[in-house]
Predict the structure.
Amino acid sequence: MDAQQFLAEFGHIANAPGGVTRLRELVLFFAVRGELVDCNQADYARMERVRLGLEHQKTSDRRTRFRVLEPVTAADAPYRVPDGWMWARLGELVEVLDGLRKPITKSHRKPGQVPYYGASGVVDYVAEHIFDEDLVLVGEDGARWGRGESTAFKISGKAWVNNHAHVLRPNRKLLTDDYLIVVLREMDLVGFISGMTVPKLNQQRLISIPIPLPPAEEQSRIVAKVEELMALCDQLEQQQQDRRKLQNALRRATLQALASAQSPHELQTSWKNLQANFGRLFSEPEDVDDVITELKNLAVRGVLVEASRSAADLARVIADCSALRSEYIATGLMRRQKLVGMAESDMTYPEHWATVAFDEAAVVTGGVTKGRDLSSKRVVVCPYLAVANVQRGYFKLEGLKSIEIAEDELPKYLVHKGDLLITEGGDWDKVGRTAIWQGGVENCLHQNHIFKARVPSEKLLKAWVELVFNSSIGRDYFAGASKQTTNLASINMTQLRSFPLPIPPVDEQRRILDALATLTDLCEEWRQQLKHKGDLASLFAAASVASLTGISIEQEEETALKAPQTELIALLRLATPPGVKAQAPLATLLARHQGEMAARDLWQRFGGEIDAFYAQLKTEVAHGWIAEPDVAQVREKAATEAAKA
């Protein structure tokens, strides 16, 4: 099979999410089953001598460097191989040199140029060496043993190997290093792993692994073909990355045109262009995030909707805030303090909007400090919000912690429904995260690294303030104002209070928020479409691979299968075997199990939802690949019985 033929038959898989990975798995699958290169009968004739040599090795009285192990029976063989091949245990084909390896603690290693190997590769460089030859290493513990993983790898020249990797020297008359690596990469070795706390591929299980053994000459041809097709997969992957870069650049240019809109009319024109080119601009669900970000920026700039005829009622906003501040001072909830001035800003907003220091629109207070001495106080224990709980526009309330607080301070630090919570610090791009508290947690407080802001005026919507703070305008201000160290940044209360807050008329605030919500909902629909498309493509790629290999591709997230609403009591039988290109995963599974299997067992091996199983079964019966089961053998469960399942 050359690269052109491989692409013609399986290229459709490549563009699915994870498709190139599936292609690499197919390359390995075909390689170890003798389906990549043509056989040579002369080579196969020599294999009989190999077979006799291994038999002699088992019966000879002479000591041998290779193990004498139980033969691989038909029941042990994971799959069929060409007639000229044979099965052998790994221990019959390699010397295990584990006795020569030696771990060195980091403090005792002398720095040098010799690679120091562990389970998955080089972990350090040292001055001395144990080995100086070509060898194959296989991870013993701390490795990954799934299908397609780099469990085995080749080393050459001077090396030191610790006790986390098995050291193998193949009998190169029978087994080449590179072919052994291909075989072990193709296998799912999880079944050979022992130990629950520390999973381990011990030596006894390692040497028992069955190896499909073609003639050495054919092994070399197989390895060369694998390298050729893997290089093709690398090219496909690079092409995808290049296309992705071009798509990202095109999307950025289109979004730049959207961001440059100066009026609702210009925005509408740019939006139509974006919609018309959606398929070219977007391929991943996360691509939609950029659109939502730009929409928020446009909203805060006043471009989403037509302007109001009235001006913002700034005097009312300031008066309402002043009244609340006076009330807080009178009741002891806060101390009297000077108003801060508005920070400089080069942002321009519509003329009928107002801009004011946040301090004149909201009352900002700090949170409770941990670790205070409360020994003389009557205390209560309350849940509190920390920085990790406050996200942009929402809260993460899992694992909410509690804190002791003086009972008489409870009113000062309680969070009320409608309060704005703003983070003081974190990563530089996360400072100033803002969310509106919606309640739901009784007597909830806020930590001193979270500011609380109360907006009392009906002329200033809390959702508008949240939008401004979480937009790029707010994020840029907080990032620029924050005190930054190597990894963290923080703002103080004065910087928050001096934020230059744009305030449109309240009716315009509502229309902007409504328009943004509508457009955001549309973006979320796009996101779901992209996700659905990607999921379907992944399922198609997995089904294509399964139809060829009979191996079900496990999903990343293991989910319990939905209980069938029918009793799967039929015995399903193979009818006409499907062709290589046929999408027939169920018939392929039947073919690998002597042509028949109980329907329930077939469903479990299929690995999908019961509805998908029935749909696939119906398709394969219609094609004549599976014999039609007796109708009476698949009967509906009673509703109560199904509910218990």
